[in-house]
């Protein structure tokens, strides 16, 4: 019988137990308990205890032999009681009940004095103040990351001789010698070949620049993976699968701590600057959630309540997407659609406020120097036509196929990394992938530039002054009408760019599979968008040339006349980017909103919706899981997906423990076990809690008690009260059981007993049980028959059963 370590829930408590939880103890108290080998990342994640428990004892009687030997030790609140161990699931019902009790107490006291009224108002305002701080901190860090990454990316190609802190663009802003044809060349900017051998021409100069590009890329990647490995192992990856798991109620100590925040911020800049096929958008959600978790410690309301803290983390995730894409509304919808498990209306408002403040802060910093929130903000001037829905849907099909292919191959590679010797050498793996990426990237200008700049180039609508090869058309017109240019025949530069983009597409598809999941911060949004944007631009240019040379065809002649601006290739790139991102993540509503916030126009919602839905349908037909859900299952996180339905006809008795031929369920009796008996059970088992029954013979259920609360209560009783010995009787009833004279003190532990644990009967369909676990956030429920305890179903049992019904390995449901 293996009960899930983190799967013991308390359904409800008597009023007195809530008071015992309103102590200085909370989840923060656990930080002194070593739970992981990653000590450095765990340390100082939360502040120390607010204060030590008073040294007073609570007695209900005299010494040994007195007529009243009853002791209710938990009249005094004990630090640690009501909190959770690492890698455990929180009790949603208990946490919400505790918050309601706290709020009721504050409301009642506010009528008694002016000071209490002020405290009540400040308590109500604290949530908005916390959102303000999260938005300011998230926006500031995002601006710092953007500016640093831009500068370090350019550092691979050269430096600004007038000021080392200027990136290439800023260095050449006020130069008088920059032309539109050679906008990247100015006297103030020196390439490495100019610095080292005083020339920028010839094969040797090319080799020097090539060598320095690869060298800087390897240096940045080595620093990133080394810092993650040594200081904060939790700073790797995108963080979104773990954020989803944490928001569902799971506790991973240190994952949102200050060391993780510091190291992730530094290494994210290094990883993006190395030129690897990854983005910073996913990790920015992790960074924002770290900010939210750390700032929660300034407010008791959120520091002491895990459910309230998760509401804050949902809002922080919205702020993270807001600064990642410059899309505040899309960030709120992303948090609601993709990551949040519990999202009440109040959290929706506060998420909106946090996203607004974060976006405003980033806009004030202006990291890209274009008065925009993102590097690839574009505006198109040509409306789309109904026939174009066909190529848009084709892009959706491509996005779905790419998403399904990427998920399968990336998960297979990550599983190989976890199960072979490859996983033991993360530094070597990162350096090898970086070296291959840099060596292949340098010869091609579209792989050499940063992925964000590539997307910006692909989204761009060509104008008269554009010197990009993608805009190298033959100008066969005399005047242009406003900002619109007519469709033109492609020049040599466009054909050259098409070949280079085709090679870039192949490289991005292959290298991203091996990059995502390495032990460095790595986001997936930007690489997925790049793949789609390349495919979309290729298709867009093809459609543009088809319309130019065959405008008399039936599909064109009704809406595209010669000399008109019919096709916008940049729009195809944007639709392709949305399709590929949707195929990988399975986002729909939030994806469309993010993409139209990027373009600044509502006119293209229908093409985006068509592509996003098509990609989701195609990808779902080939595999139901998005990339984040797939990584949650790969890592064995105890995440119960709320979107999937359980369609099997099994009963609670088929899933509960113990099964036939298993040892009997380990229980405690309400008034007949000694301290030694309970300590023996605790030492011989690893269960996270125990049902309490009237007696072993009757098996009538009384309640449920958590292992952690038992250990803390007994240890404190032994330290603080001399009369409690191994032979002392522990009882969970209201009154002390009748005892013979001259027996040791009894120990009353009723206040840690959950008197209303959630129960189902043995004939309850598992479909209902699974729904109960999802909607109430339960960790366990007890199974009874006519009031007699039969067994227990934990969250892990439910997850194992779902995996078994889906013909998957049930033993994979384990925190790996």
TrEMBL record:
Lineage: Eukaryota, Metazoa, Chordata, Craniata, Vertebrata
Keyword hit for Repeat: yes
Signal peptide per UniProt: none
Reaction catalysed by this enzyme: 2 chloride(in) + H(+)(out) = 2 chloride(out) + H(+)(in)
GO cellular component terms, A-Z: early endosome; endosome membrane; Golgi membrane; plasma membrane; synaptic vesicle
CBS domain boundaries: 656-720, 752-812
Keyword annotations: Antiport, ATP-binding, CBS domain, Cell membrane, Chloride, Endosome, Golgi apparatus, Ion transport, Membrane, Nucleotide-binding, Repeat, Transmembrane, Transmembrane helix, Transport, Ubl conjugation
Annotated gene: CLCN5
Functional summary from the UniProt entry: Proton-coupled chloride transporter. Functions as antiport system and exchanges chloride ions against protons. Important for normal acidification of the endosome lumen. May play an important role in renal tubular function. The CLC channel family contains both chloride channels and proton-coupled anion transporters that exchange chloride or another anion for protons. The absence of conserved gating glutamate residues is typical for family members that function as channels.
Subunit: Interacts with NEDD4 and NEDD4L.
Name of the protein: Chloride channel protein
Biased composition (Low complexity): 12-25
Family stated for the protein in its record: Belongs to the chloride channel (TC 2.A.49) family. ClC-5/CLCN5 subfamily.
Record field: transmembrane: 125-145, 210-235, 312-336, 386-407, 427-444, 497-517, 524-543, 571-596
InterPro entries (alphabetical): CBS_dom, CBS_dom_sf, Cl-channel_core, Cl_channel-5, ClC
Main location: membrane
Stretch list, region Disordered: 1-28
Bilayer topology term: Multi-pass membrane protein
Alphabetized SMART domains for the sequence: CBS (SM00116)
One of the record's GO molecular function terms: antiporter activity
